[in-house]
Amino acid sequence: MSKLETNQVDPSTGTTLTLGTSGDTIAIPSGVTIANSGTATGFGGTNTPAFEATINTEQNPTNDTFVKINFDTEVFDTASAYDTSNKRFTVPSGQAGKYFIFSYACMGSNTNSTLEETFLSIYKNGSQTKTAMTSTTNNPTRYCNMVITNVMDLSVGDYLEMYGKIVKTSGTTEVRTVESVFGGYKIIE
User: Global pTM?
Assistant: First the structure.
């Protein structure tokens, strides 16, 4: 191996300098700093797959029971990994890794001052994994905006669904449409 020591390398044509050819590896040793004062392209990655879904029709789940929230309308889905018929995201082939998952849902009762508790849960492969809960027992209200976020390590084929539970004293339970969303994206590692 030969060693070239110089302070500047310029392309002979003044347009593009190419280091190596296809299949080569250019090693940057530990402790070396790369300083960029120009434009960097082709580095990093993208936060995909990514998806977001909303509710098309208001849902009226059974009181005091965890039920799947009907996120049945895609806002976007970069990998066709969100299934609107089953209301779930499934990690596609080759896309295992860490994902940021989020949901917010407006849940409550159609009658004022009857809502006591609301729960929003992330289910992974059919099992409850993370839950957010709000109690309004001491000050019953009509609606509660629930929010849940989590970073999850997911394997190919893992699927995620959102479930909710509403506890109210009277009226009809409601998961409202425009105020509710379920989404996520793969984290660049």
Answer: 0.77
